[in-house]
Amino acid sequence: MEQLKRADVIAYIKDRAPELVHGDEIYLGRLNNSRLLEWNDSNVQSFIRNLLRYAVLRDGFRAEYKKIKSNIVNKKTVRRMVFLFYIIKSKVQI
Description:
This protein is mainly α.
C-alpha cells in the first residue's frame, strides 16, 4: 500500500479522538523511562490506553483509505473498458 498522508491520518484521528492530537502531532502520553514502568502508574495506563485507541483508529483509517482507493481504481477500469469498447465499435463500423 502506498504511503498515507500524515495530515490525512491526523485529521482522521482528530475527528474521532481529539484528545490524542496536540497541534499537528499524535500525543499518546508521557512516560518516565528512568524507572521501571509499572501498571499501577496512571501515566503507564493512560499511555497504553491511548496507544491501543490510536492503533484501532489507524486501522480504521487504512480500511477506509483502501476502500476509497479501490473505488477509484474500479472507476478508472470502467472508463478504460468504455474507451476500448468505443475504439472496437468504431473499427467494426469502418
